[in-house]
């Protein structure tokens, strides 16, 4: 499938796949020969790139997704999700098959993810012409950590299109993440594995191109570095009971980018992110659902700045 005609607001690069969701009685899960899973074990389309693309589309942005995808039942699930939600999708052949993972979700909504790394190869590449055509037709490109995105970074920088990335639970040291951190204009990451979030945030901005760095901290809100100033962003109140943290970071990033593309200041963008992330925590991981623009704006207006 090729890109829609006309301008793209956000091109999402990589991160297409399927997750198998298992609700477990507790995390960490004690060893046992077997567990009875009364809530069911469900496989659905949606990994980080899919959820960012879904969230952006739900907010009214013209979104296109580019990734490698297998000719397999899992790939069919991903294609069907994009068709159903009206997300533009360029799916290139992946002989190794569609990316997949197993997510164990505890009663408090925390998750443990098991990623199948056999579904990608370090030498995977996006065709240069395809990448350049889609990137130059876009106002912004969001780059996931998955292969073959790392190889695409030099070409993306060359286009001059603004870039964002999500480093997820980077510890500030793993060398795989660093090229993404230093190439992006907007960097998202989780503070979960950081012993000194401020140090890591300032290091990213000091060594790379980032104008904005956001480190999310769950119920403790987020750290926002913009214009050289570090501020704390309060967490937003979820609109319903928290059931699952899957996709909260993707929702935060998408809503922040929505605000940025609308010309909002960073603090307002971060408020949008907090509201969208809180909403995502109320949606079971077995469903692919994101907050809409009207609800995001209404909830943001009711939340303290």
List the helices and strands and how they pair.
Elements: E1 8-13, E2 17-23, E3 41-45, H1 48-58, E4 63-69, H2 73-85, E5 88-93, E6 99-105, E7 111-115, H3 128-136, E8 138-143, H4 149-159, E9 163-166, H5 178-183, E10 186-190, H6 197-207, E11 212-216, E12 222-226, E13 229-233, H7 248-261, H8 266-280, H9 293-302
Parallel strand pairs: 1-4, 1-8, 2-6, 4-5, 8-9, 9-10, 10-11
Antiparallel strand pairs: 2-3, 6-7, 11-12, 12-13
Domain Carbohydrate kinase PfkB: 188-288
Protein name: Sugar kinase
GO molecular function: kinase activity
Examine the coordinates and then state which fold CATH places here, giving the name of the CATH topology.
Answer: UDP-N-acetylmuramoyl-L-alanine:D-glutamate ligase
Largest sheet: 9 strands, mixed
Structural class: alpha/beta
Helix-strand pattern, N to C? EEEHEHEEEHEHEHEHEEEHHH
Distance between the termini: 42 Å
What spatial order of strands do you see in the largest sheet?
5-4-1-8-9-10-11-12-13
Number of domains: 1
The share of residues in helices is 25-40%
Rounded mean pLDDT is: 93
Share of residues in strands: 15-25%
- What is the alpha-carbon Rg in Å? 18 Å
CATH H-level superfamily: Ribokinase
CATH hierarchy, class: Alpha Beta
The geometry reads as globular
Q: How many DSSP helices?
A: 9
Detail the poorly predicted runs. 1-6
CATH architecture: 3-Layer(aba) Sandwich
